[in-house]
Write a structure and sequence with these properties.
The chain has two helices and four strands. The protein has helices at about 10-20, 30-40, and strands spanning about 50-55, 60, 70, 75-80. The strands form two sheets. Strands 1-2 form a two-stranded antiparallel ribbon. It has a two-stranded antiparallel sheet with strand order 3-4.
């Protein structure tokens, strides 16, 4: 089952609207439970997007957390699809020629 993000506040309003449309005089216990369940669901942090930026000395760093890219003694500086420090996805467009991905010499 795949995950999809929903607007919890919109769902909560939809539940209240459905109740009002029903014409019932009291907000039923089951609808109160529905709203409570929406409030109890875990939240998903939004994905951060960044890019590998380059210092003047040729060292790359994450545009989000400013940590320098991982350095491997065998392969040199490793520019991954995600920052290993903050988790930012390195797919943000840049106006420079900064590489989007460079791993093991690719």
């Amino acid at each position: 089952m795949s995950q999809r993000l929903i607007d919890a506040e919109h769902l909560r309003v939809s539940i209240y609207k459905k109740f009002k449309e029903s014409g019932e005089p009291f907000f039923p216990k089951c609808r109160q439970e529905d709203v409570r369940l929406v409030d109890l669901e875990p939240t998903i942090d939004p994905v951060k997007h960044g890019h590998w930026a380059e210092y003047s000395n040729g060292v790359y760093y994450c545009s989000e957390c400013h940590e320098e890219a991982y350095w491997d003694t065998d392969y040199g500086q490793q520019l991954f699809e995600y920052c290993p420090y903050c988790g930012a996805k390195m797919d943000e467009a840049t106006d420079s020629t900064t590489p989007m991905l460079k791993h093991r010499g690719l």
